[in-house]
Design brief:
single chain, mainly beta, hypothetical protein yedk fold, five-stranded mixed β-barrel, 4 helices
């Protein structure tokens, strides 16, 4: 599961590829509970927007935000059925979290070593997400949050090497830049088609131990 990534700071790329302005003032690395730039599209108006959202989806019905510790990744195969995700799935609340790279553990040395995964071309990319709105019951604060969608990666040429031996290999769903608009506007059938790693751009990975 992806728990750590680097949100992009490349505002010009975001403007050119998605036609939106990148927000400011967010951490250089994101973990569950941290804000990161998320692109969404209104199915009513067609407007595309980018704002900060919390990593770890908080369903609209949640009594507090503690559930977000367990909802930062959503299995694409079961998201439509899970209580935390089925409402945003039904309403096609697709998003793209904008990333330079993300991190996964490799156990090839016998212990967990952090590796960095990025596009082979070195450009930023969007990871497919579900998002939801939640209102804090005590303060009335509105919170937008998201979960990365993931797929099986047992046969992926890069992502098959991460996580513990014997565990299922998973990868966040990376949406190629030319498919960003298709993802944000997708009906359920099109979304299912795009949530396959075969559509993902070529990746590269290298060891990136923590300092």
């Amino acid at each position: 599961m992806c728990t750590n990534f680097t949100p992009t700071q490349r505002a010009q790329w975001v403007k050119e590829k998605l036609g939106v302005d990148l927000p400011t003032d967010y951490p250089a690395e994101s973990y569950p509970g941290f804000p990161a730039p998320l692109v969404v599209k209104s199915h009513q108006s067609g407007r595309v927007a980018c704002g900060l959202a919390r990593f770890g989806l908080i369903p609209a019905w949640a009594k507090d935000d503690k559930i977000a510790r367990h909802t930062y990744n959503a299995r694409s195969e079961t998201a439509a059925e899970k209580p935390s995700y089925r409402s945003p799935w039904r309403h096609r609340q697709w998003g793209l979290v904008l990333v330079d790279h993300f991190f996964e553990p490799s156990y090839s040395s016998g212990k967990a070593v952090r590796w960095k995964i990025e596009l082979a071309c070195g450009e930023p990319f969007g990871i497919a997400c579900l998002w939801d709105r939640w209102t804090h019951p005590a303060t009335g604060e509105g919170v937008v949050s998201f979960s990365m969608l993931t797929v099986n990666a047992d046969a992926h040429p890069v992502m098959c090497q991460f996580h513990k031996p014997g565990d299922e290999k998973r990868t966040p769903v990376i949406i190629a830049p030319e498919l960003h608009a298709a993802w944000l506007s997708a009906d359920h059938a099109k979304a299912a088609e795009l949530m396959r790693w075969e559509h993902m751009p070529q990746l590269r990975a290298e060891a990136a131990p923590r300092p």
